[in-house]
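# nightly structure sweep
# worker-07 picked up a monomer target from the shared queue
# config: single-sequence mode, recycle default, output format = structure tokens
# input follows
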Amino acid sequence: MDKQYDLTQGSITPRLLRFTLPMMMGSLLQQCYNIADTLIVGRYIGAGALAAVGSAYTLMTFLTSVLLGLAMGSGTVFSLQYGAGRLDQLGRSVATAFILIGTITVALNVAVFAFIDPIMRLLRVPADIYGDMRDYLWIIFCGLFFSFVYNFYAALLRAVGDAVTPLKFLAVSVILNIGLDLLCVLHLGWGVEGAAVATVAAQAVAAAGLAAYA
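# output follows
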């Protein structure tokens, strides 16, 4: 089956559902990184680790949402140029958007590393989970660039009508994250740091795979 859907031909409702349902499922799957981390550290480490990882979710979601919004915005430009057949302009737009959003990602990374302690104090993180949450976030922030790469190329593929391939890579990444969580936390005993390493490694696999495919 062709993974690219032409929404300008035929009945709009079934074609729109076939295109949008993978996007909706992808949005749900992206939440599974933190959910898996939370469940596993809560079961095998304890309540303190559970609170630390769960409390990190808000800040992680904020940063990821910034990158996702920028990627979706650039995807709108990509889709207009692809639909109009302006492939030369599309190529230039992809390169420009990648550099721009990549630069913003690096700037965000520097900012959160520099201000992680003031941010956590602003969030009033309890002292008993402060250390675990800080260790978890520090490693997670190391994977922010991988989140950008995945979301950027997912937006590019969706712009040309392929919403299925990004979902496949994401599904593999989520399954890998669960396996690595169990390995790092349960067998290697790395604690909350292990859960963060597992998440970053899984995101790196999804980012590299989707970028190579695109």
